[in-house]
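User: Hey, my collaborator sent me this sequence without any context and asked if I could get a structure. I don't really work with proteins. Can you help?
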Amino acid sequence: MSTRSTASSWPRRRRRPANRSGLPERREEILETLDAIGVVPSRRWGQSFLADPFVADAEAALADVDPGRPVVEIGGGLGVLTVALLRRGISPLTVVERDPRLAGFLRTKFGDRIEVIAGDALTVPIPDAGCVVGNLPYSVGTAILLRLLEMRVPRIVFLLQEEVAARLAAGPGSKEYGRLSLIARLYGSVELFRRVPPESFVPQPKVGGRIGVHSARSGDLPVPSVERFEAVVRTLFGARRKQLSNLLPRLAPSVGEAKRLAEQAGWPPDWEHRRPEELPPEAYFALAATLAA
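Assistant: No problem. I've predicted the 3D structure and written it out in structure-token form, which is a compact way to encode the shape of the chain:
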């Protein structure tokens, strides 16, 4: 798998720069602002507000698009990431924010420098963009990311809980490698960057996060049917501790037909003695294409 991971830990002592944005960044400022606009962070919506401008700067630096190419931010919150994107000259910038009170706050703070869409990122129409950036709510972040993958967004800069990010970037042979890894690889490639501790947010989530980038695959997808591919992956990874000799016949009318499928898909000669996590994504792409032939 071509995924590369460049992990780096935050230094323990960092000097926070002077806040020239006029936006709340410290815990006390964030809580005061939320109270002023009548927002109580929702557990159901997974609302946590970024309190570390270094994280926002790191994400904005990864939003690498040509000048004038549209960018979409998912989950504007109180605008800490928004201002980091604007500082880098990104325009036009559209911000999708589910909470109408926060959407109103962003409109007031940024005026005509951004366009704000008040709605759920899982359902509202998302404009075409060269890059989508977001601190995705941990509760629904995977679902939002999968939607963006299906849209074939050229570049996605995300911050998700570390466990999910690891699964997205995982390669064969690792315990994290599975359905999410294969879906991410189907649509492109994933690279991981900084770890983000829980204390970077208000309120603090229970787990840390990780910044990552998904770069879309150019050209056609390697499978004729995404739905059929996902069904294959669900079947084979649904009992990942079993060997493929016990799993592949579930996709074929007989053991002999299963062996024929494996041969046509170019699987290694010893595939029967391997477990699902031991084969690379390309093996599953080839199997899905063979089944569709």
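In plain terms: Residues 1-13 have pLDDT under 50 and may be disordered. You can pass these tokens on to your collaborator as they are.
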